[in-house]
């Protein structure tokens, strides 16, 4: 799940007839779903499985979609069915149809009905505990594929039914099934469909029949899933290692192959260099348990490889991963791709203005994280390599399995995509690695109007004043292709004749974000932040500045004299540590006016070295920041008290004081 992770569901036990039976679980699970059938859809149903006679009091069945097919309006509860008063049957199953009195199949509960399921897009089905009053509620206010609210106490089970592998509505569950490519409507040709019928078979889900012939031939509401008796092998997991291979590395492709019937025949890896007309084929070998593996390569730097795995049983039932292969395979690239090459756009300008030339391709990239973990969202972070134009990139983390910290140098692998007109990298699961820690680069802009320009997209930038605040918090212009149903706060700043918006995507006061409350005519000494796409204006290419925390928004009245001013030689600038006093991590910003070897060190008041935060050679004037976590060079927490931090380049230096609490 996006915000709450469903509990792990152990494999269902199979009988000798290879049909599913009720799992011995503490909580029930979703077992079978039909969302479409010929005629009036009277046989749409969902089925739960668990312990015989188990009470369903306090549970509810929830379906999340796009609210009557409204484009750009995602995360809406389309179906909400309280299950109070229901119990599982003596066989451990319960099926509820939308019209049990007109249904063709049998085995339904005779006392429940519900509105028809959506069957024209990606949808998410959930079994939850402790929910009420959900029908029609928007749970994803900004339509970013992450639930902003979860009005239930627990998710017991979920599955997302997929119509399209790209471009469809977001889903809100890691367990997915579909699309259906093996059926054809009478009025159309082959294409992807959302599965009309799905059933849990063993550890995974299986796409059933679109139109039964005869009706109910493969449906089994209220009982074991008979369709599981002829399930082809499944390939739910496909990986390549290493994530970011170099030109000297062979690449190991691994696939998890599930064989419910015990009649697996062959597993093949098909691969080719991008653009080649044909795939090469190699047999994969068992690598322990349900894992199969094959090794290919090495290949020259920047080679893009496409691949897919095909598993076949003795009855010649075949499954591929990706299911869209061979037309749309998986891919990996050799070597690191510079961020400016990912941001480059030479194709025709579309509604997103400058889409990446590498859109849809796999890349490996390195950069320095420019904000704290979770400061904007646990689902994405920004990286930057230097301060030249086009050097920033947004990294989207679908599984929330990699959340690096400010100043971490990372190597990440994923697919380039345009999301709301902002180029981003969709991280492959398990393919993020911290390889070091460095000062955070900050690009200095000469003029404020540069904020809303493509070269600075996804970069951490700063603009010196004088800057004037021209609006307080504004929520009236919050738009996202629909009527505003959430608060999107922002305020406006100007310098001369040009104005830009400043966003509020960070969180405060839980240790992150900024506390500044804008007032008209406030004067800012400078403002810093990450340039991101404005959610309410994505289709028009409107960028805005997203400050991260208090030091990013500096009022002129915050300038303080006396002992808090740094001891400065030759115009180095060393910012006050924020926060100070601190009990944990504090951020230190700086600026050096000349080239040279720059060091930033922590000392105690007696002048003893406590921690060297960094040492780095700069080729010219630069601005950056780093963090101190209250530890010494050996990684031990230091005692509470006063400490000095000192910035040096050549014979120039600047020193400030910081207070550490415990």
Features:
662 residues; mainly beta; Immunoglobulin-like; OB fold (Dihydrolipoamide Acetyltransferase, E2P); 5 domains; seven-stranded mixed β-sheet; five-stranded antiparallel β-sheet; 1 helix; 1% helix; globular; disordered N terminus
Structural write-up:
The protein is mainly beta and 662 residues long. The chain has five domains: 1-231, no CATH class; 234-331, Immunoglobulins (Immunoglobulin-like), CATH 2.60.40; 339-441, Beta Barrel (OB fold (Dihydrolipoamide Acetyltransferase, E2P)); 443-558, OB fold (Dihydrolipoamide Acetyltransferase, E2P) (Beta Barrel), CATH 2.40.50; 562-660, Immunoglobulin-like, CATH 2.60.40. The strands form eight sheets. Strands 26, 27, 28, 29, 30, 31 and 32 form a seven-stranded mixed sheet that branches. The longest helix has 5 residues, at 339-343. Residues 1-25, 184-190, 479-485 and 557-570 have low confidence and may be disordered.
List the helices and strands and how they pair.
Elements: E1 29-34, E2 45-49, E3 59-65, E4 76-82, E5 93-97, E6 123-129, E7 154-161, E8 176-177, E9 197-201, E10 204-207, E11 234-241, E12 251-258, E13 264-273, E14 280-283, E15 285-286, E16 291-296, E17 304-313, E18 318-321, E19 330-333, H1 339-343, E20 362-369, E21 380-384, E22 392-396, E23 408-419, E24 422-437, E25 440-441, E26 443-445, E27 460-469, E28 490-495, E29 498-503, E30 523-533, E31 543-546, E32 553-555, E33 567-568, E34 573-574, E35 586-592, E36 596-604, E37 609-618, E38 622-628, E39 641-649, E40 652-660
Parallel strand pairs: 7-8, 22-24, 26-27
Antiparallel strand pairs: 1-2, 1-9, 2-5, 3-4, 3-6, 6-7, 9-10, 11-12, 12-16, 13-14, 13-17, 15-16, 17-18, 17-19, 20-21, 20-23, 21-22, 23-24, 25-38, 27-28, 27-30, 28-29, 30-31, 30-32, 33-40, 34-35, 35-38, 36-37, 36-39, 39-40
């Amino acid at each position: 799940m996006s915000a709450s992770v469903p509990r792990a569901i152990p494999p269902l036990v199979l009988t000798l007839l290879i049909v599913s039976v009720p799992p011995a679980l503490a909580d029930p699970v979703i077992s079978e779903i039909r969302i479409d059938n010929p005629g009036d859809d009277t046989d749409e149903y969902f089925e739960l499985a668990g312990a015989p006679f188990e009470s369903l009091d306090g549970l509810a069945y929830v379906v999340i979609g796009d609210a009557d097919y409204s484009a750009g309006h995602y995360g809406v509860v389309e179906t909400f069915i309280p299950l109070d008063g229901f119990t599982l049957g003596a066989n451990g199953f319960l099926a509820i149809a939308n019209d049990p009195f007109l249904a063709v199949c049998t085995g339904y509960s005779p006392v429940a009905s519900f509105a028809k399921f959506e069957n024209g897009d990606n949808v998410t089905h959930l079994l939850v505990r402790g929910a009420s009053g959900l029908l029609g509620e928007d749970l994803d206010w900004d339509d970013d594929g992450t639930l902003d609210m979860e009005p239930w106490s627990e998710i017991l089970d979920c599955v997302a039914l997929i119509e399209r592998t790209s471009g469809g509505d977001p889903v809100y569950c890691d367990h997915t099934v579909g699309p259906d490519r093996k059926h054809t409507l009478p009025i159309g040709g082959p294409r992807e469909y959302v599965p009309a019928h799905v059933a849990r078979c063993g550890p995974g889900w299986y796409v059933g029949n679109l139109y039964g012939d005869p009706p109910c031939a493969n449906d089994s509401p209220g009982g074991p899933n008979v369709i599981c008796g002829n399930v082809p092998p499944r390939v739910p997991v496909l990986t390549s290692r290493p994530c970011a291979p170099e030109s000297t590395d062979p690449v190991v492709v691994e696939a998890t192959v599930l064989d419910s019937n015990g009649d697996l025949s062959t597993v093949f890896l098909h691969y080719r260099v991008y653009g080649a007309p044909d795939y090469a084929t190699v047999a994969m070998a068992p690598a322990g348990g349900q894992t199969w593996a094959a090794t290919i390569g090495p290949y020259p730097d920047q080679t893009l490889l496409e691949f897919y795995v095909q598993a076949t049983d003795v009855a010649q039932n075949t499954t591929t991963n990706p299911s869209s292969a061979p037309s749309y395979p998986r891919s990996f690239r050799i070597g690191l791709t510079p961020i400016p090459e990912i941001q480059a756009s030479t194709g025709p300008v579309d509604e997103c203005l400058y889409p990446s030339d590498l859109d849809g391709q796999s890349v490996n990239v390195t950069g320095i994280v420019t904000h704290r973990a979770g400061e904007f969202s646990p689902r994405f972070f920004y990286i930057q390599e230097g301060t030249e134009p086009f050097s920033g990139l947004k990294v989207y983390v679908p599984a929330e399995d990699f959340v690096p910290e400010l100043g971490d140098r990372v190597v990440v692998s994923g697919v380039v995509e345009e999301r709301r007109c902002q180029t981003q990298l969709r991280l492959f699961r398990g393919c993020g690695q911290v390889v070091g820690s460095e000062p955070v680069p900050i690009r200095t802009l000469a003029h404020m109007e540069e904020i809303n320009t493509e070269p600075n997209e996804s970069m951490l930038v700063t603009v010196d004043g004088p800057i004037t605040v021209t609006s307080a918090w504004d929520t009236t212009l919050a738009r996202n292709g629909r009527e505003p149903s959430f608060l999107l706060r922002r305020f406006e700043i100007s310098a001369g004749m040009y104005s830009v918006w400043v966003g509020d995507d960070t969180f405060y006061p839980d240790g992150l974000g900024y506390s500044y409350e804008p007032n008209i005519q406030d004067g800012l000494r400078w403002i810093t932040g990450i340039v991101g796409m404005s959610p309410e204006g994505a289709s028009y290419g409107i960028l805005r500045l997203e400050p991260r925390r208090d030091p990013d928004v500096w009022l002129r009245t915050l300038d303080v004299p006396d002992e808090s001013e740094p001891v400065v030689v030759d115009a180095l600038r060393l910012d006050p540590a924020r926060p100070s006093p601190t009990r944990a991590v504090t951020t230190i910003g700086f600026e050096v006016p000349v080239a040279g070897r720059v060091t930033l060190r922590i000392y105690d008041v007696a002048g003893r070295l406590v921690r060297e935060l960094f040492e780095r050679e700069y080729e010219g004037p630069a601005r950056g920041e780093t963090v101190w976590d209250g530890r010494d060079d050996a990684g031990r927490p230091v005692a509470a008290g006063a400490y000095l931090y000192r910035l040096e380049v050549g014979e120039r230096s600047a020193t400030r004081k910081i207070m550490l609490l415990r």
